[in-house]
Amino acid sequence: MAAQQGMPTSTLRGLEEALGMGMTVSGDTNEAVAAEGAYYLEQVTITEASEDDYEYEEIPDDNFSIPEGEEDLAKAIQMVQEQATDTQILEQKTVLSSKHAVPEAIEDFLCNFLIKMGMTRTLDCFQSEWYELLQKGVTELRDVGNVPDVYSQNMLLENENKNLKKELKHCKQAADKAREDLLKTQKERDFHRMHHKRTVQEKNKLINDLKGLKLHYASYEPTIRVLHEKHHTLLKQKMLTSLERDKAVGQIYGLQETLKHMEIGHSSHAPEIRVAPNCEKENAPEGPTQKGLREAREQNKRKTKMKVNKKDSEFPTDMQPNPNLSLCKENICPAKFDYKLNNILRLHELPVSCIVVHPHKDILVSCGEDRVWKVVGLPRGNVLLTGLGHTDWLSDCCFHPSGNKLATASGDTTVKLWDLFKGTCISTFEGHTHAVWSCTWHSCGDFVASSSLDTTSKIWDVNSERCRYTLYGHTDSVNSIEFFPYSNILLTGSADKTLSVWDARTGKCEQSLYGHMHSINDATFTPRGHMIASCDACGVTKLWDFRKLLPIVSIDVGPSPGNEVNFNSSGTIESWVHG
């Protein structure tokens, strides 16, 4: 019995030495044996604070009452019993059976400890010797005992401590990251605050400038009113002067006729002085007023003769076949493009509104909002010619089929024709009441068509310099116009969301195409003329079958507006320009 009782004690001592909780392994066997009797286990009960020691405040139930008019003894007794049962249930303590914790055996604890410390060779030696003793019967498992709760609690506390350290490390990292984010957010807040202050300052400055400009313009109103009055006074004086001039001219003309009659009468009686009065009249000094009148009459006579001599052009009846019909049709596969920026041409001081390439030469014409058009040579970009004459921005231009003339449309409500060899304006067409958006040449070169903000389009005769037809039908601005290749058919696109096909010989609308939901900015034919492409203010591009006058496909590349649409020379590739 003594041997059996000493076995657990020696085992516990070895456990304490392995954990480092008892004596240190110093190799002094006598001191270890002497100290062996000083270790003992004592069972200590740790009492936890019970909830019964806490005094709860009792809340009286005053809500219990029997309704008047329903005083029934049986019901009252039943309600009292139910209340008593509820009180007993609340007073009872619900005791949950604790799960029986199986203590860990000493040999398992030692094995786990050696594995945890990485002492594999010691583990192998321990297991071989331990199982050898078990097989020989020297040691029994029931005599070994279990690991005391203190050691198990120490191990659990150590693991929990490690987990807490890891969590603390993660929390520190999260705190550092949150600190960095906070600093970054504070910097962004300071930046936005500063930007807001600067914006407010600029806003206040603009408000002050606007107030100053309003006062400045208000000071101009009296001056403008005085100038208007002076202008009206001068117009009245001019009118009176012109009336007096006309009256004086009539009197002079009457005197001249009287002199002629008198000279004729004198010549019958005195033929020898027949030439003298005529010589005196020819040699008489001519005043500035008479000279101006004579020049004006001669100029009006010349203009009248020129207008009488100019005849209206005839629309061609036998048009030549479209040479683009013989273009290659079998190249259906889309070509691969590798475009690269070659040069940047800075030609205008204000935005560029139109660029057109010459039909035969390596030159192009650019129009801008600075009222100037320029002819540029390619690929160097040298300016060959500059055109001045419009009083407002230019919106469009178009080459004559021969390439020798240029037509320009402007916001000053006019269309001008230019001779590219001389660089001079040869004709000015006036008739629109608002800005002209677009212009196009007939393939014969004798007619120019223009579209305007005044909801109309006009066909101009180049030879007689007059408007042949005004096309009415659109209800909003006509933004684009183009002649069908080698024919007398016109295509217009309008802000009323419609396309219209016109006969230029009669000026009548033959067909209208509906399908766009927004203002149409541009429309064009393919070189072969079998399709129409149009784009609107929301970036929707549509292809139409011109023979059937039906839509083929719709391409939405919005929300930016499509300002211009065009085809390549073969008509197989379409491109559009967005604003």
Automatic annotation (TrEMBL):
Gene3D superfamilies per record: YVTN repeat-like/Quinoprotein amine dehydrogenase
Chain segments carrying region Disordered: 280-321
Species name: Vicugna pacos (Alpaca)
Name of the protein this chain belongs to: Sperm-associated antigen 16 protein isoform X4
Keywords: Coiled coil, Repeat, WD repeat
Each WD repeat, start to end: 387-428, 429-470, 471-512, 513-547
UniProt biased composition (Basic and acidic residues): 292-301
SUPFAM superfamilies named among the record's database cross-references: WD40 repeat-like (SSF50978)
